[in-house]
């Protein structure tokens, strides 16, 4: 009987410290420690994030190993997020992974965070194996730092055919929430209030960007000016119209995303459509995609909620497939704050 392949995945690109264990392609544990310290500052503070990672990483890894029911000596390799992300946060995860791998005498596997988001669609558990997209498929990655449309030709060949030229969609959600005086992280709160509002109540201008690229900076400025002008006329404007405002800005952002995705599908002829990244947890985006599935004959793939936001299961599954290809990193490896998806 062959020895099982057990991958420990470690994710530390931003403000979530996460560890996961995958055994022979099946997820056994997925542990995430969130950092509430950033709420007081209205956004992630890089120095505080890296300090919190230092506090959290050993307990999180220890819990992942215990929950999975394995012994650390059974681990075949350690997969870690090399980038992109906050350099201080990445340094903590990279340094820990290198030290742990050296101590156990096992290989290191470096993972691109965005590739991990895409391959989250291939996470299975012993109890559940969802249908995976067939190659090639289109994947829209939507997060606080990235908005991209990717042609996924296979697990290790991905082509970015459209991306934001300035701000990401997730950043637009959070900025809109901040303008409305909502606490950080504001994106989920906009989604919550939008459910009770009219998405056509207020109209916001959509940018005209060529090809398949995105832009959200103009929308943010337009939204801020709109709120400032209306609030000057009526100081109670936000409170009176909160649900409708949230529904309208969410509708606009989702429309911008879907217009480009529809164009990408038409250009490539690909009807296998997936989403990934933190904003793919947004209920408005998920529901819109499901309605387009029927309208356009797409087959849509949406990850489970816990695989949308930053997590280590996506790093571990990517590491598992890289392990099978014997793609190992050296102990000389360093993190990369900018790390293009290839």
Summary keywords:
342 residues; alpha/beta; Nucleotidyltransferase, domain 5; 2 domains; five-stranded mixed β-sheet; 10 strands; 42% helix; 18% strand; globular
Give your account of this protein's structure:
The chain has 342 residues and is of the alpha/beta class. The protein folds into two domains: 141 residues, ATPase, nucleotide binding domain (Nucleotidyltransferase, domain 5, 2-Layer Sandwich), CATH 3.30.420.40; 167 residues, 2-Layer Sandwich (Nucleotidyltransferase, domain 5), CATH 3.30.420. The protein is built from nine helices and ten strands. A five-stranded mixed beta sheet has the order 3-2-1-4-5, sandwiched between helices. Strands 8-7-6-9-10 form a five-stranded mixed beta sheet, with helices on both faces. Helix 8 links the parallel strand 9 and strand 10. Helix 3 packs across helix 9, helix 4 runs parallel beside helix 6 and helix 4 packs antiparallel against helix 7. The protein is globular and about 70 Å long. 48% of the residues are buried. The model has no long low-confidence stretch (mean pLDDT 94).
What's a concise summary of this model?
With 342 residues, this protein is an alpha/beta fold. 42% of the residues lie in helices and 18% in strands.
Q: Quick one: overall form?
A: globular
What's the CATH class label of the largest domain?
A: Alpha Beta
Strand order of the largest sheet: 3-2-1-4-5
The CATH level-2 architecture of the largest domain is identified as 2-Layer Sandwich
The overall number of domains is 2
Instruction: Tell me, rounded to a whole number, the average pLDDT.
Output: 94
According to CATH, what is the topology of the largest domain? Nucleotidyltransferase, domain 5
Cα-to-Cα separation, first versus last residue: 37 Å
Number of strands: 10
Biggest β-sheet description = 5 strands, mixed
Q: What structural class is derived from the secondary structure elements?
A: alpha/beta
Strand portion: 15-25%
């Amino acid at each position: 009987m062959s020895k099982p392949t057990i991958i420990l995945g470690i994710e530390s690109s931003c403000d979530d410290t996460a560890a996961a264990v995958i055994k022979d392609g099946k997820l056994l544990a997925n542990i995430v420690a969130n950092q509430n310290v950033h709420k007081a500052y209205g956004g992630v503070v890089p120095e505080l994030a890296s300090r919190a990672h230092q506090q959290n990483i050993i307990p999180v890894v220890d819990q992942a190993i215990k929950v999975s029911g394995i012994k650390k000596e059974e681990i075949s390799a350690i997969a870690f997020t090399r980038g992109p992300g906050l350099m201080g946060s990445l340094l903590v995860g990279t340094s820990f992974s290198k030290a742990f791998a050296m101590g156990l005498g096992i290989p290191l596997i470096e993972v691109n965070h965005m590739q991990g988001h895409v391959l989250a669609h291939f996470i299975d558990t012993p109890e559940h194996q969802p249908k995976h997209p067939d190659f090639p498929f289109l994947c829209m990655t939507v997060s606080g730092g990235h908005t991209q449309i990717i042609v996924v030709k296979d697990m290790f060949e991905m082509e970015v055919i459209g991306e934001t030229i300035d701000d990401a969609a997730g950043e637009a959600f959070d900025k809109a929430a901040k303008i409305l005086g909502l606490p950080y992280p504001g994106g989920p709160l906009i989604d919550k209030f939008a459910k009770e509002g009219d998405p056509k109540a207020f109209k916001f201008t959509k940018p005209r960007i060529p090809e398949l690229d995105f832009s959200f900076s103009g929308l943010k400025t337009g939204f801020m000016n709109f709120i400032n002008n209306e609030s000057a006329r009526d100081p109670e404007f936000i409170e009176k119209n909160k649900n409708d405002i949230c529904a309208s800005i969410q509708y606009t952002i989702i429309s911008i995303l879907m217009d480009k995705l529809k164009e990408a599908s038409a250009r490539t002829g690909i009807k296998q459509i997936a989403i990934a990244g933190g904003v793919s947890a947004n209920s408005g985006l998920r529901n819109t995609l499901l309605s387009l599935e029927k309208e356009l004959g797409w087959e849509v793939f949406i990850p489970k909620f816990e695989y949308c936001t930053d997590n280590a299961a996506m790093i571990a599954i990517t590491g598992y497939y890289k392990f099978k290809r014997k793609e190992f990193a050296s102990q000389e490896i360093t993190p990369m704050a900018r790390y293009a998806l290839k």
